[in-house]
Structure formats: structure tokens, C-alpha cells
Amino acid sequence: MLKSITFLGLTVLCLLVANTHAGAVVAPIKCGKRNVGGVAVGASVERPLHVAESEFGEFPWTVDINKEGTVFCVGSLIHPKVVLTAGQCVLRGDANSLKIRAGLWDRVVKNEHLPYQERSVEKTITHPAMHERSKDIALIIVNEPFTLGPHINTICLPPLNHVTADGILCYATGWGNTALLSSTSQRMKRIILNTVDRTTCQNNLQLHLDRSVLCAVGRNGTDTCSGDSGAALVTRIASNPTAEVYHQIGITSFGASCFAGLPGGYTDVAYLREWIDYQMEANGLEKSSYEAV
Q1: 127 Cβ partners below 8 Å, 6+ apart?
Q2: Is the pLDDT of residue 179 over 70?
Q3: Which fold has domain 168-269?
Q4: CATH class of 62-155+273-283
Q5: What is the per-residue pLDDT across 239-253, written as a single tens digit (0 to 9) for each?
Q6: Which residues face 215 on adjacent strands?
Q7: What percent of the chain has pLDDT over 90?
Q8: 110 Cβ contact partners less than 8 Å away, ≥ 6 residues apart
Q9: Residue 286 CA from chain centroid, whole number
Q10: C-alpha separations of 18 from 23, 29, 139, 157 in Å
Q11: What does pTM read for this prediction?
């Protein structure tokens, strides 16, 4: 049941385990850890069907935001009770109809060895200055904390005004279209991208970009597309280049055309980090869950 909608903000995430009491922390789990090769139970692990699919549990912060079981949007877990996503995802339609699922990989198989967890929306917060292609960010507070584990964890957030270099390798995930006019993906996609400099992006898109937007372009035949709005754009934390620890630099927001070799627009998380922190504090939620250590 949706308790309230506030046009004020979104959020951030990282390293904790919550018990059944909202916001309570039992033990820390490091944010942003990518499970390269997937999460195995015993001697078995589910394998992707093709190279554009992720491994089971590879990106444990990825959250499915669905409407009546269909692909709608994507988010990222930044706290056991908080999902970071695009503002458009909570403003399109009735937020009461949204279900939030963490730990989901295959949308068809019902008996994965580590099950997904589903929650309802308690509250949504969007940025008060959000408009078309600007400050497209929101926080979803769920009705009950997710229980963190091998396939469910938070993503780290970069510090305020962190600048990501051009050409950096990034990943995004989601269940959106696998080609411009194709159907959505059964299994979570692994989308490979590179960041693009601002001038090139503006020239390619023929748009003036708001300061809250950064750009990335798909590579190796992958791209974010319809159904992937709100998905986290993540890159490895440069201070620890040998570890598979990532932070979220962007939120999938808009594009001219997917799979056309054109860059897309992503909400700059570092630029809006102060706003995220403020919303977390205002709602009595710990920020340490998304701070890299």
C-alpha cells in the first residue's frame, strides 16, 4: 500500500543487512561487490543463454520494478529499504500498482535456487526540479526491508561531484528490449557501455544537456532500451582497480534510439549525491549502506 508520494528526491546505497524492523542493521555487508561468474549453490550455478545475459546473482543490487508482472522499470538497492531509480518510473501511472523484486534473474523460471524477494511501495520521493531530461531521479522506500545475501546486496555511490573519465568501461542491467523492435529479455541482461564526453554526446543527440546528465554508449551489440529506465550505470571503483567492487555513476534516463550506436543520457548520481543524502537523513535512514570503505 502506498502511504505517501513526495516530490523531493531519491537515494543511494551500500553495505548492510537489515532485520525485520525497518531500517535496523544487524551486520555490515560491503556494497558494490560484483559476483563475477555468478552465485553458485552447492556444485551448481545457472548459466546464461548467450553473451548479452548476466550470470545469476552477478549484479546483486539490481531491482526489478514491475507493473502487474510485466517489465516496467529497473532500480538499484542502496539500503535494505531503499531503491534508487529514475523519477519517470514513479511518475508514470499509479505507484500503488508497482511491485519491487530484488534477487530476480529469470522472469519465467519460478524455482531458482535462491529465490527473489518481493516488496510493495511505502513511499516515493522525486526531485522537485525534475523535468524532461533533467534530474530524473527518485527514491522508492519499500514496506519491509530486503534481507541481504549472496544474490541481494546494495551498490556503492560515488562521492559528491565525483567525475568519471571519458571512455571508462561501464555496465548496466535490466530486462528491457534486446533490440530496438524486439521483445523484453527473459533473463537479466549484462549491458556493456563506455562513458562519452559531453561535447560528443550533445553533438550526436543534437541536444543541450543539463548538468545533471552524463552520457554512455553501448558496445559489443548491447545497449539500454525500452524497459531499462531507472537501471544503474556502474563502473569499477578506481581506487581499488583489482577488486570487483563497483559504484553507481548513473541512472538510465533517455536516448534517441537504442542499438543505433548513439549515446544515451544517464542521471549523474555524484552530481545529485547531496540531495540523496538529505533524503536519506530526512527519512531516518543510514547513509553508510552505500558508502564504499
Answers
A1: 7, 8, 9, 10, 87, 135, 136, 137, 138, 272, 275
A2: yes
A3: Thrombin, subunit H (2.40.10)
A4: mainly beta
A5: 777 789 999 999 999
A6: 196, 265
A7: 73
A8: none
A9: 19
A10: 6, 10, 18, 19
A11: 0.87
